[in-house]
Write a structure and sequence with these properties.
- With 237 residues, this protein is α/β, with parallel strands linked by helices.
- The protein has a single domain, classed as Spore Coat Polysaccharide Biosynthesis Protein SpsA, Chain A, CATH 3.90.550.10.
- It has helices at 17-30, 62-72, 129-132, 146-155, 160-164, 167-177, 188-191, 198-207, 218-229; strands spanning 6-10, 35-41, 52-56, 79-82, 86-88, 101-106, 135-142, 182-185, 193-195, 213-216.
- Strands 3-2-1-4-7-6-8 form a 7-stranded mixed β-sheet, sandwiched between helices.
- Helix 1 (17-30) links the parallel strand 1 and strand 2.
- Helix 4 packs across helix 6 (167-177).
- The protein is globular and about 45 Å long.
- It starts with 5 loop residues before the first strand and ends in an 8-residue tail after the last helix.
């Protein structure tokens, strides 16, 4: 019996082409049995194919809005939270979680963070991305909304720059470092594989037999996703 029965996505904005691709890929992989929950503000259109569209009054600060949306959703069973610019490559299942477990994909690259982008973060000067944000927030597997409630409470106390950027990741690190949770790590290469072009995506599908989720990162990645959206390439290689 499948443990994973619900996937959640957050999206704000009138152009819903990107989350539409994610939902299409979920339906191709899992059919209609998977519950897909869209969390959005009151103006964002519903994405075709979602099971539920929950529209909320949200902060204009995007990191706060995301955690407000996540914290608002009651969780009764293990739930997977994905970024909208991702694609399900093939059906997969996830193991059940203990009460205090959180599933994440740890960063494996060791690169210095650009502390001046998208604005100055002096706390990050000379530090590695994997040290200050060790978990990639585009994949969070949880069985309680309490994690997001705690993150939201933390984020509201942080400077505005974290409420606009990085706040989800730094508060996740803080929570998982607190000792309240057990961390269950999933392989980033199979469950959160970064791709920045159609060629990278097709290479990943062909070379990683267990690839489940691709993440189209950065402007180039979004362009690649747009190419697939326009029908120039199929969802799968």
């Amino acid at each position: 019996m499948r443990c994973l029965k619900r996937i959640v996505l957050f999206w704000v904005g009138q152009d819903i082409a990107i989350p539409q691709m994610l939902v299409r890929s979920i339906r191709l992989a899992f059919g209609q049995d998977m519950e897909v929950v869209q969390l959005s503000d009151r103006e964002t259109p519903a994405v075709d194919g979602v099971s539920v569209c929950r529209r909320l009054k949200l902060s204009p600060r995007i990191m706060v809005a995301r955690l407000e949306a996540y914290a608002s959703l009651p969780i009764k069973e293990p739930t997977l939270y994905l970024d909208a610019d991702m694609m399900i490559v093939k059906a997969f299942d996830l193991p059940p979680l203990q009460a205090n477990e959180v599933g994440v994909t740890p960063r494996t690259d060791r690169v210095e963070i650009n502390w001046r982008y998208p604005m100055e973060y002096p706390e990050f000067r000379g530090k590695l991305l994997s040290d200050v944000m060790p978990y990639i927030y585009s994949f969070v597997y949880a069985n309680s909304e309490i994690l997001f409630v705690r993150q939201l409470n933390q984020l509201r106390k942080l400077p505005k720059r974290f409420q606009l950027w990085y706040g989800d990741q730094v508060t996740l690190k803080s929570e998982l470092d607190s000792g309240r949770y057990e961390v269950r790590a999933f392989d980033v290469n199979t469950h959160n594989r970064t791709v920045r072009s159609v060629a990278e995506y097709q290479h990943a599908v062909a070379s990683v037999p267990d690839l489940c989720i691709a993440h189209f990162k950065g402007p180039q990645g979004k362009q690649a996703l747009a190419e697939i959206l326009r029908g120039h390439h199929s969802l799968q290689a």
